[in-house]
Amino acid sequence: MWSSIVQGFADLIQGFYHITVAIGLPNYGFAIILVTIAIKLLLYPLTHKQMKSMRKMQELQPRLKLLQERYKEDPQRMQKEVFDLYKEHGVSPLSGCLPLLIQLPILVAFYRALYQLKYTVPAHAAFLWVPTLSKPDPYYGFAILAGVTTYIQQKLSTLDPNDPSQKSMLYVMPVFIAWLAATLPAGLALYWVTFNVLSIAQQAWVNARSGGTKDSPDGRVEKGKVVAAGGEGKKESVMSDEGGKDGDGERRKKGKKRG
């Protein structure tokens, strides 16, 4: 079964290569980019849901910290409150796992497919500065790009940049990915870089569209209302610019009458 999956990826690369031939740009590098775009579109519903969930978790970080501080002596209560907060906002902490689990076999299959790929025209296996996509990039260009794009993607999706563990992963993971890309076939590194660039654009779009609600350590600000997070019950005070102006106007009028 696994050999059939690997052969399927090899056939997919060949199929997209024939498309590049048809459009007058015969190159296996372009074929891999087209394959990556097709895979990204196929995984779009999963990755979009993951990114939206991660963005919501970013916005909920101040309230999560508040709950952790308030119930640090009662871990069970803290877990319940955190679960209720996630449930209220439709957030699943495990939503990011499925796309990653799906990506892993794709990377391995791609890796094996590139090794056994029989190029129709071997000269078309060269791409940019790389002599052949089946061997590691001798100039480490794709390795550097893999590391940089991984860093940017992580920067956009990091939940809490001040958290020591997340902060360390922000720098450790790109270095690890760059090292892998330097040792694996350049075609796989090209796939990783292309996928990262598409993910960065998608994450930036998700972040821009979900920038309406912001949280603060004292509560959440939502459409002109401040909902306090303290206490067992929730206190709500409506902050209105018009109301503030009217109140200032009334005070000025009273001051004039007194004068």
Kindly describe this structure:
This protein has 259 residues and is mainly alpha-helical. It is built from eight helices and four strands. Strands 1-2-3-4 form a four-stranded antiparallel β-sheet. Strand 2 and strand 3 form a beta hairpin. Helix 1 packs across helix 2 and helix 1 packs across helix 4. The longest helix has 43 residues. The radius of gyration is 26 Å and the shape is elongated. It starts with a helix and ends with a helix. About 13% of the residues have low confidence.
Question: Strand portion, in percent?
Answer: 5-15%
Give the tally of β-strands: 4
User: What is the H/E order?
Assistant: HHHHHHHEEEEH
User: Terminal Cα separation, in Å?
Assistant: 92 Å
Mean pLDDT equals 75
> Biggest sheet: strands, sense, closure?
4 strands, antiparallel
Proportion of helical residues: 55-70%
Shape: elongated
Q: Structural class, from secondary structure content? A: mainly alpha
What is the topology?
Blueprint (H helix, E strand, L loop, with lengths): L1 H21 L5 H43 L4 H14 L8 H20 L24 H17 L6 H20 L2 H24 L4 E3 L2 E4 L2 E4 L7 E3 L2 H18 L1
Antiparallel strand pairs: 1-2, 2-3, 3-4
Helix pairs in contact: 1-2, 1-4, 2-3, 2-7, 5-6, 5-7
How is this structure best summarized?
This protein has 259 residues and is mainly alpha-helical.
